[in-house]
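Good day; I would like, with your permission, to put a structural problem before you. What I wish to show you is a protein chain and, alongside it, a tokenised description of its three-dimensional fold. Here, with my thanks, is the record as I have it:
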Amino acid sequence: MRGFTLVTGATGYLGPHLVDSLLADGVPVRALVYSEWKGEELAERGIQVVYGDVCNLATLRESDLCQGVEVVYHLVGGGNRGEIDPFLINTEGTRNVMDVCPADLRAFVYVSSSTVYGRQSEWVDEETPPAPRFDYPQSKLDAEELLQEAAREAGFPAKIVRMGAIYGPGASMLGAELVQQGRLRITGDGQNVISVIHVADAVRGLRAVADHGRAGQVYCLGDDEPVAVYTFHNYLASLLGAPPVRTTPVRRVRVLVRVLNLLSRLIGRRPLALEALIELATLNVRMRNAKVREELGLQLAYPTYREGLAQCAARILSDEEE
């Protein structure tokens, strides 16, 4: 009997696309879900839903989360805006999921982030030393190191994917509604260049890593042509017939976030991490994708942002007509 494939983070943006791909190939899927209302739709589709919290090892042990599991896609993550402790969810959460994996696990695919490189003026690849600049990427890197140590010392089948910024229909990264309304604001001048990946290719890449990647290895997953943030959003605006996007000086964003954080404290909410937000918005990193192409044979359906955004814009305009 074919074993289960476990997907953590199945109710995020990337997770449902991965689940769709697995189901289309007849793969039995189990999903780790934090809250019941998020799991109902998954259960209705025939997915085995397990409720638990990656930050609470006891809930994972009590649920028999990984019983009969052959492959794990660990997508759960967070804390990039300071809303939660990134080390708790990214580092300890990864350790907890590792702890309940069976001895005969075939692959554990961990979704890390291009942000671990910090700001880089040159191209980076899997051999480039990471240089995280704030807590979120540091917590991702700490999780990577846990997995690589387990791979070296215990043969744990960890495979790490440093993912570029994921976009696609419905992705929050697009800011499509704001773009159409002419209200999207880019922090800084938008000339910082980032690696992006269409969600369909992100799924294709993750599955290639699971099936053909080597344990203990890191794989950079972005498209063929990193793009300036301003160029990316402005290209989408042109496809949608919207006005050009505008930029906001970093100093003005700092003032705005400080005001929002003051209000958050007054109502008892955790303030956003100001510098983390600035770092994310002004990140500069170009990842080479040669390893996933040459070693894994990955072929991208959307090799640049132009093809990917054309698909997104067509979907947006089609939905409006309906």
Remarks:
- The longest strand covers residues 107-113.
- The first helix runs from residue 14 to 24.
